[in-house]
Structures are given as structure tokens and as C-alpha cells.
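Let us practice reading a record.
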Amino acid sequence: MIDRETVQRILDAADIVEVVSDYVTLKRSGASYIGLCPFHNERTPSFSVSRAKGLCKCFSCGKGGSPVNFLMELEQISYTEALKRLAKKYNIEVKERELTDAERQQASERESLFAVNDFALNYFEHNLTDTDDGRDIGLTYFRERGINDWAIKRFRLGYSLPKGDALYRTATAKGFNEKYLFDTGLCAKTEEGRVYDRFRGRVIYPIFTTSGRVVAFGGRILQAKKEGVGKYVNSPESAIYHKSVEVYGLYQARQAIAKKDRCIMVEGYMDVISMHQSGIENVVASSGTSLTEGQIHKIKLITRNLTVIYDSDPAGIKASLRGINLLLAAGMNVKVVLLPEGDDPDSFAQHHSSTEVEEYIERNSQDFIAFKTDILLKGVVNDPIARAGVITDVIESIALIPDPITRNVYIQECAMRLGMSEKLIVQQCDKLITARRDKEAMKKAKEDAARTLQGVDKQETGTSTSTQAPPTKPEETEQDDSLYLAKYERAVLRYALKYGAVEIGDEAYDQEGNAMSITVIDYILGDLEGDGLTITTPLYARAINMASQLLRDEWPSARTRADERIDKERQQMWEQGVAAIRDSGCSVADIDRREKELRARCDEMVRGARAVVAQHFIEKQMASCDDDEIRRLTTDLVSERYQLSKIHTKHAHIETEEERLYSLVERAVYELKDAVLECQQRSIRRKIKAVCSQPNCDPSQVLALMQENKRLTEIKAEFAKFLGERIVAPRR
């Protein structure tokens, strides 16, 4: 486990924009950045990244969080592994303590699978370069294919020894659990129960995630192929490997793809390796399978521009056209390049320089619709029925293009190429688009109905609506009261997490009666405690208690570190400003005036910088903690957008949340207290009804309850005066 001091150094160093940019192409939008969400397919960017807050958030699917949470969600890794990944990125030495037995038992199964794969990766690499079989067979094969040492190291190529269970025996001898060797597909058993290595006698192509974790392997047999033995074998699906979302070479190519804003797609492992070796590094492969939506989504996060390279095999081209249709539907800009007859990307890259390859791609790129039309029309020009089928196929592809302007351009081009009426093609496209939308709407309706029937939709308490009996009483229950109260507790908690360490005016006094500042969290907890109240929703109570503890334990040292950094920045700003003034000052009076202005700017910078540190301290800490529920809650709350109450919208000059922070926090606490009173009155009304329903109703008991209800009503009336408007309970 990583010690707390190291964790804090990692959190301080991690820049959310830099971390997210490793996976998503971001563009500045005001004070934040936006990009396509990496957690779901979308055409319009809704993924927002704030450097000041240290948070990211998708306003469509809701996922996001701190740099730690982002990596955990995207890579499906543990909290500790995410911290290690950030530490590696920022060159921070990780200090760990030994885990207890209980902590070892809680270690993620996914991490065990990754650990086995990491072992296998190093094992295969060792075999290739440091064993006789590896050098004589595996390395010789790569040399014959023209692959050099640079490419072998870049793609971590390896070799699996031909002996049936060599990897199994080596791994188990080193203490690896055989369960994970089988779960990753590295090893398997025959029907007789004999263990064997899946990749025995093959050269190995590791498959990495976008962040560089090995999730699977591909192996090519080198000896004479036996009957029933495939030329290539790949890792099976596992908890960490889903072939429909992994793209071979994307880890090695992602920086070049982002730089050139274009991805080149080829078919196989060797195609990718040879292209990279020739100097064309923005190349990935579909690994011989049809493109999937998951793979397209990963590429689209980096670029929308894709060039597909085909060799001259017509059968292979036609088989891959469906994958291109998926690219069009995803809004990708697709170009196609056909290589000279007899060449594939591997051989073409081996026999041409990078400049020659790039020039050929540039000269011979054509848009996909034109390419598809030419390919499908070959041999059917004089066959009206077949020609009609080709035209229908091409129009179906055009109808998939989501952007109406791009679609219209292709319609015009298609009409000219096919000698057809543009109006007719538009009509056919409109029919196909309408039919597809109707189909999608029907599918969604069925899914919604299925979720309702299965009781997937849940209340905030987490109980399924389908398992709850219909309420037998029209009045509110205690559970209703809890849900009602939780809405107001959430509003108060939002201020505690978003502004917890911020000081909000001189509202507290020391023993001498001198005014002193008080933080948002201290104000909230102190005000509630003064009336004997606490946060009752368990998760919210845990969150505000954690925030309060952070304020006590971590904030003083964090503030000191921040002050030291800010003071250095102020000193640099002052020295640079003074030097500039002395160089350009025209008189003593002018120098004095400008130095005074500089001092004011420096002081303002310090105040602003300290305010920013205070504002984001609690949210950054809690959005990066090891509690999954707290992390998600913090991200959700601090990302919620502030809206003024209607009664205050006329004060346009003070609409920002920060400027009105004290009055907003005070109001939120009063509204929570008002909600508590409302719940108490509901409870009294239930008690009155219960007493009156008894055979021997006690009038004095009913009177006492009514008097208590009247007292609460009077208190609520005072609250209403302060709040300035009638309190209306939110609809449930």
C-alpha cells in the first residue's frame, strides 16, 4: 500500500488536462477543455475537463472525476494501480508498505490477471533473445521478415518455447496461481486433463491497452502447419481482454495519430510493425477481424480522420466493407488507399522509404463512397439487376453519414458517378434514415419497458421499485421523509465539498470578542449542531465527516505548502516587475507610482491564488480518495451547475456563486432546517391519525400533538421570512 505522503505528492502533481489528453483530444472552451467522452459513444463533445478543479465530467453519461478516478474508470484498474500509473507519469518514487493478509485477500482479480500477463510478456521476450530456440527460430523469423531490433523492442515481440508446458511450469514455480494462467488463456487443458501452453512454438505479438497494459497475446506458428492447427492463435476473451474494443498498435501509435490528426488502418500485426519501422507511426490494425464499434470509438477519441489501406485482393476488400459502414455511421472521415498489385502494407513498407510511402498514400487516397462504387460496379456494368443492387448498397452507406452537409456532398457525387437523379437518391436516403430512426426508437422503447418490468430503475435508497408493494396510505411514510430530507442535505453537502476550506466572512468570534473568519464546513456543522441537528443520510454524513477531518488534519499543511509556492511566485513577479520598471521608468515619481501599482497587483495575485487553493482543496482530496462512493458523490456534486433562485435573478451583478457564497450557504442551511421541521410535522400528523384511529382515543394526547404542530408551524413562519419565499417541497 502506498503511504499517505506519497499519495499526496502524486495528487499534487497530477494535472487532469495532461492525464485526459493521453486518451482524448481536448480543445479549449473558455476556462475549461472539452472533448469526446471516452466512456460512451457520442458525436458531439460533452466531456468537460477543468484544470482549476482537477476534475473531468461527462454531462451526458455522468462519468468522470479526478485523475485517479478517470484512470480507474477508463482502464478498469484499482485505486493503487491508478496512483502508480500517475506516479510513473510524473516521475514520483512510490513508497509502499507491506499489505496485511486481509488486504492481500482483497487484491483485485483483474490485477492478478494483469500480473500473469506481465510475467508472460517478460517470459516471451526472454525466450526470443536469450534462449537457443528463440534465437534460432523466433529471432530468425523476424530477421527474415525484415524486422529490426528497434521494432522488436517497440512492440515487445517474443517467442514461446515449443515444449508443451514450459510457461506453465515456470509460472507456477514462481508462485503464480494456475487459475489465472487458465483465465488469461495462456495455458489450457486437454480432455485428458493434461496442461499445455496455448502459444507453444509460436512467435508472440503482445496486445496492449491504450495506456500500455498487456491484455492479450497473438501467436503465429512457424513450423509446418499440422492438420487442424491454425496459423494464428489469440488469447480468448477474459475479464481484462475484450477483442471487440482493443486495437493492435494503438498504444504505440497514439501520439503520432494525435500529432498528424489521422489514423492509418491496416490488417495484420506485421503490417503495423513494418509501417512503424519504415517511419510511418500513426498506423494500427484490426488484427484480421472486422472493425467493431468499440474499436472505432477508441480511435475516434484521438482523431476523426481514418485512412484504410487495402492490398489488391477484391475478396478481402468486399469482406471488410461492413466495417467501413460502421466508420461512416460514427461520423469518421474515411479515405481508402489501394496498394499496387502483389503488395500488402508489410511488403510495401519494407521496399519503400517513409517519404515514398507517405507520398503514395497522399496521391492515391480516395473517399470511401467513390472507392466502394468502383469496387462493386466492376463486372456488373451490363447487368441491370446487379447494378441496381450496387446502387442500393452505396446509398445505404451514404444514409449512414450523420452530418447532413457531408451526406449531401456525397449524394451529389454519387448522382454524377451513377448517372442518377440526385432527388431520387435523397428520397432513398431519407427513407433509410427514417426507417433506422424508427428501428432505434422501437429498440429503445423495448429496452425501457424491459428495465421497468425487471425493476432496474431504483430509488435513492437502492431498493427496486418492482419489489415494493404499492403504498397503502396516501400520506407520506418515514421513507418518504428520508428521501425528502436527503434533497436538502445534498444541497448543503454540495457547498461543503465544493467550498469547504473557503473562509466566508467574519461570522465567528474569539474569547475576546474579536471577529474571526470561519470556513464553510465549520459554519455548516456549527450551525446544525447549535440546533441539535446532523446530516442523516448515511453516505452524506460520511462525506461531510470526511471533509471535516480533512480540514482539521490535512488543510493546515496543504495551506502552508501552497503559501510557500505562492510567495515564491509573488517574489518572482515582484522582481521581474521592478526590473522592468527600473529599465523603463522616466522619473522617480513615475517609478514610485508604478511600484505601488505592481505591489497591488502582486497582493491581488496572492489573494486570488490562495482563494483558488482553498476553494478546490476539499473537492480535489475527496475526488481522489480510495472510497468509490465518496469519489463518485464528490464528482457529481461539485460538477453540478449553480442556478440562482428566481427571487434573486434581478441581482445580475452578484450572480456568481463565489461572490454570494455566504448568503447561499446560509440559505441552504436554513432550507435544510425548514425541511427537518416539515418532516417533524409529517410525523406528528401520522401520530395524530394513529391516536384517533384507536377505539379509546385520548383527547389530551391529540391536543398535545396539535400544540406541538402549531409550535413548529410558527418556527417555519419565521424561517419563511428569512428565506424570502414560500418553501415548496420538490416533486417526487
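A brief commentary: The two ends are 44 Å apart (CA to CA).
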